[in-house]
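Input chain follows. Return structure tokens only.
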Amino acid sequence: MIPIHELLSRIRWDAQLAKSRFVIGYWDRVAGSVQHADLREVGWDADNPAFFDLLDAEGVAHSIPFHRVREVWQDGTLIWQRHPAGDIPA
């Protein structure tokens, strides 16, 4: 399986992939579940390459580490998953 940082880098920089819609699912410790975000809404911090930035529904910014990414969807199809369904760590 390709590491998540390599997959996200390829998605960001590959012109062919730019035509697709990507959604990432990340483990939210507070909600206790996988939350989904459109990759177009994610911010990237060059000074902190192991994290991505995301605004929540209240407009509060959160830095989320790549190790909490659990799945990646391309045009509605699951293309990458860290853990099998039902095996999400707390």
